[in-house]
Amino acid sequence: MPIYKIRGIDVDFPFEAYDCQIVYMEKVIQSLQEQGCNALLESPTGTGKTLSLLCATLAWRKSLGDFLTTTNEDKNRYSGSQHSQSQSTENPRSNYPVIIYTSRTHSQLKQVIRELKTSNYRPKMAVLGSREQMCIHDEVRLLRGRAQNNACHYLCKKRLCRHYTRVSEYMKSHHEPGNEPFDIEDLVNIGRTKGPCPYYLSRELHKVVDILFAPYNYLIDPGNRRSLMGIQWNNAVLIFDEAHNLEGVCADAASFDLPLGSLTACISEAKQCVDVCIARRVIEKSADKQRDPDNYAILRALLLKLEKRIAEVTIESKELGFTRPGNYIYEFLSDLNITYETANMLIDTIDNAALLLEEESMTDTGMQTKTKGTVCRLESIRDILNIIFRDGGKSHSKFYCFHVQESQQSNMDSFKGKVSRTLSWWCFNPGLAMEEFIRLGVRSIILTSGTLSPLDSFALELNLKFPVRLENPHVISPHQIWVGVVPSGPSGYPLNSSYRNRDFLEYKQELGNAIVNFARIVPDGLLVFFPSYYMMDRCIECWKNKGHSSSTDFSTIWDRICRTKQPVVEPRQSSLFPHAIEDFEAKLRDSTTSGAIFFAVCRGKVSEGLDFADQAGRAVVITGMPFSMKTDPKVRLKRQYLDQQALSQNKDSKVLTGEEWYVQQAARAVNQAVGRVIRHRHDYGAIIFCDERFAQQNRQCQMSYWLRPHIKCYPKFGDVVFTLTRFFREKGTCGTLKPKPAETLSIVKTRLPEHKISLPKMLPCLASTTEHCSRKSLSSVLADSRSNIFNKLGQVVPANRSTLSNKANCHLTVHNLRESSLKESQCHDDEVVDLTSDTPYHEQPIEDASTPSIKKLRTSKIDSSVVDCECDEWLHNGHSRSSLEKFSSSSSTGGHNKEISGLSPYGSVNYGTYDKDICTQHGQFGSAMISNGEINTEKTTEKPSREEDIRSSSLPHGDKETRGSAFLMQVQEKLTVAEYKEFVGLMKALKSKTMKITSVLGSIAKLFFAPERICLLKRFKDFVPTKYHPIYEEHLRANGAAD
After folding, report:
1. Which residues are CB-contacts of 994 (< 8 A; sequence separation ≥ 6)?
2. 8 Å CB contact between 32 and 139
3. Rounded CA gap, 397 and 916, in Å?
4. pLDDT tops 70 at residue 981
5. How many of the other CB atoms lie within 10 Å of CB of 564?
6. Residue 39 and residue 25: Cα distance in Å, rounded?
7. Which among 283, 387, 381 has a CA at the least distance from the CA of 330?
8. Looking at the predicted structure, is the pLDDT value of residue 624 above 90?
9. CA separation for the pair 972, 970 (Å, rounded)
10. Which of 404, 429, 827, 1033 is the most buried (most CB within 10 A)?
11. Which of 715, 686, 700 minimizes the C-alpha distance to 488?
């Protein structure tokens, strides 16, 4: 495994790292090395973000000292009672920072641990999960939510769970858990085979670890966080992976909504507690204060007063509700004698009530027949009191808003026909949770995801300083993705899903007809995202209506979609979602259709975290901007809050206005939905924006960094169909290729503006330039780069390689790393147009659908921007191009989609198809066919008997110009698309005098180092200046090609 020295740290990486991975690891280590230096890192899905994050973090931790191991002293900690506070959790090496790695879901954490297993790092670890994932008790595991928690607490308190009692015994006799990576399933298997409770076993293991894995809510929720007594927060490193929803999670965790229906249920439970206590006192004659009915009677009386107080609030406008500043809640509750002091007593009473109700449920039904459990609604009141009276202060209330809203009339018996109300206390500062971690003394907070853009708003929302920031490029090549804005549909009607237009029949029909076309073009899986469930329901309803049909055969839009793809619609109910996913997968496997189409909504389950790699998602259609309802009380008050905060800040300080927040929330939802398609470095797909507003420059700036350079605007729908069809036709011909290691590095290298590249003009520089070649360093070229984050990578070299090899052949030389920086800083090339431009984007003609597989030869066409009409100037000036004219003579009479095939000692070689004028020589170069060993053109026929004869016929021994032109053709034949572009880049760099000729020779030798390319390596010497023959001959000897 290669080792990279990054900022003085040796990072052991399991694979050859991409340039963007090294940059990412550099930023991670920078954040860890500086106390209090937080990082905000965006890296697209498929760039190896998780593995890079783990390796960089653990390498830094290992540089401080060895990882922890279980010792005899550790085992002795469990010799006493299992949860005794006197047990020592100290370890002589536990002063090292603990790494706390969190993600949104258990399934995401499982993937993270799988990545850890691929690395060479073996830290002492633990993973936390819920009882729902980890309980193995025969009856309790059937329960869910609070009912399960209450049942577990009851059985453990009574020591009636045999799995719970075996945890201490297991910890004393086994030391292997935590020394090797394990996930929740591994803990469950231990519990089932050896007896200990997986849930409490994880709670013991987390006390002494190097790295701890846990879901978000275990840290953000104050109650869960307090239960993790073993974590050493001081100097800890806190990592939030998949952090794109973190601000919303933090705000929701600090807020609450209390409907009157829930409050009524709490009152009933308090009354039940009173009745149970009275009955037990008569039977047991116990004076236990925990079973004093007076406590529960007081609780019930307070809740009744609260219910009455909410009902008496004057609401003048049903739309606006009743709104007050956040600190109003203390005045509101003080009328009920609920203060910080009384709140603590109420919380204790509620905790006792939850246990009492669980015991009563166990006694009445018994565990053998109990399957649903008891859900204690009173616990929601406890959580609300903890939020309101947190830390005993009131200062946090300035970030809140008090709101009472009326909802539709309920027919519930408890309301008896009354209008329902909801009391809400909304937190509008997600940074409160982050401030709590700062108070706990964490060293660094790292937030990372594939879709954090726009970064500024994210940082402002969390109210944290992030000195280290990164927006990483993707590792895919430009030809692997098609991104387009579709401002109008097939008939020219504008596509705009704004509130004004969304209900127009013409808009819904136009959108439907556009999707019909996409369903025909896109193979396999197609994802269509709507801004909301309302829009999705209205559109599908319209498309199914026969009265809205515009086709000649009177078939509906829905019928025409179903002819090519079987539809699946995302359900509103979470319980139905797994069935929808299974349905989609089954329809994808159905060979009678061309795939399946999944209709979903932004911010829904389909757009969040699901992996639609390869055939599951070849394209995603975004039908509009998913703006939240402006009239929604929470949205409206959030915007007002941010506007007020902006006015109160200094003019020089960065602020986030309500409108900016509103727009950026929609943009982040779009970025998240778009991320469903390209899932790994070999994947390919299309992203289709079916809303004219995406053509605006301000919308483009809010898209993910890696996506922006690829976006094009197509004023005419015909251009969309043409280019999209061509894209998938090429991909269908090429298949999904897994490039060699050298190729995987090349896909993140510089893609130069090829419309300015002329290979014929480049090699003369090699042949004629000696001492005149510039000594200018590449760093000076990067001075114009938009970002300088790569400029510090000169120190990043493989630690296990010599500096000599680094200068010549290493894949991670300063040259290549900085060249990658140059690529990503050049956002505009010949395929990128301004989103606001009305100029149509002209594409090449569509190639023949029968083009042979690119797996045999990876270049399916010759790019006219690389091989252009100046080929005659490539090697030396003068002389005609007789050999190429043999091919070009057919351009005026032959077709432009003829197939070229040939023979090879390594098997059949398919040379792909060539479009008319794609490769030209003064506009004369056409196409030819090599079939069964014969070169067929309109005017020339040759019959070489072996491949060597073919090569010799294509490499004439006459003038240098014709030899050079033929050599160029053979280079394109032998190299992959990515390698050929690198070859072009080397020639371009040499011509522009940004590289030394010695460096060019070394890079060329590396490109031509392969058994089937030795002929290129030898023949290239003919074009090397005599002065540099000794240097080039050294490369020939090194590669075994010397004569």
Report:
1. 774, 776, 778, 781
2. no
3. 70
4. yes
5. 18
6. 12
7. 387
8. yes
9. 5
10. 429
11. 715
Q: Which residues of 181-197 are buried (b: 16+ CB within 10 A; e: fewer)?
A: bbbbeebbebbeeeebb
Nearest Cα to 388, choosing from 307, 322, 329, 303? 329
Question: Which residues are CB-neighbours of 588 under 8 A, at least 6 positions away?
Answer: 524, 525, 595, 596, 615, 616
447 touches 40 (CB < 8 A): yes
**Reading across the β-sheet that carries 3-6, which strands appear in turn?**
9-12, 3-6, 797-798
Residues counted in the chain: 1043
1009-1013-1018 Cα angle (round to 5): 85
How far apart, in whole angstroms, are the C-alpha atoms of residue 311 and residue 322? 12
Tens digits of residue pLDDT in 99-149: 999 998 888 899 999 999 999 999 999 999 888 888 989 888 888 777 888
Query: 3-state SS of 547-584?
Result: HHCCCCCCCCHHHHHHHHCEEEECCCCHHHHHHHHHHH
Q: Calculate helix-pair angle for 557-564, 533-544, nearest 10 degrees.
A: 100
Answer yes or no: is pLDDT of 975 > 90: no
Q: Position of tokens 């001075």?
A: 783
DSSP letter for each residue of 611-647? ---GGG-SEEEE-S--PPPTTSHHHHHHHHHHHHHHH
Give the whole-angstrom CA distance, residue 478 versus residue 680.
Answer: 14
DSSP string, 34-79: STT--EEEE--TTS-HHHHHHHHHHHHHHHHSPPP---HHHHHTTS
Q: Which tokens go with 278?
A: 């009275």
127 contacts 187 by C-beta, under 8 angstroms = yes
Average pLDDT over residues 430-451: 91
Report pLDDT digits (tens) over 896-947.
Answer: 333 333 323 323 333 233 333 323 333 333 333 323 333 232 333 333 443 3
Q: pLDDT > 70: what percent of the chain? A: 70
The torsion of the CA quartet 710, 712, 718, 721, rounded to 10 degrees, works out to 20
In this predicted structure, what is the pLDDT of residue 536?
A: 95
Which helix (H) or strand (E) is 456 found in, with range? helix 455-462
Grouping H, G, I as helix, E, B as strand and the rest as coil, residue 125 is: strand
Helix (H) or strand (E) holding 909: strand 909-913
pLDDT at 847: 38
Paired tokens of 750: 């510089």
Two structure tokens written together for 999: 């460096």
CA distance linking residue 263 with residue 269, whole number of Å:
10
Give me the long-range contacts of 355-360 (CB less than 8 A, separation at least 24): 355/150, 355/153, 355/154, 355/157, 356/273, 356/276, 356/277, 356/290, 356/291, 357/150, 357/269, 357/272, 357/273, 357/276, 358/150, 358/151, 358/153, 358/154, 359/154, 360/272, 360/276
Q: What is the DSSP code (8-state) at residue 791?
A: G
For residue 22, the model assigns a pLDDT of: 95
Does the model's pTM come out above 0.85? Answer: no
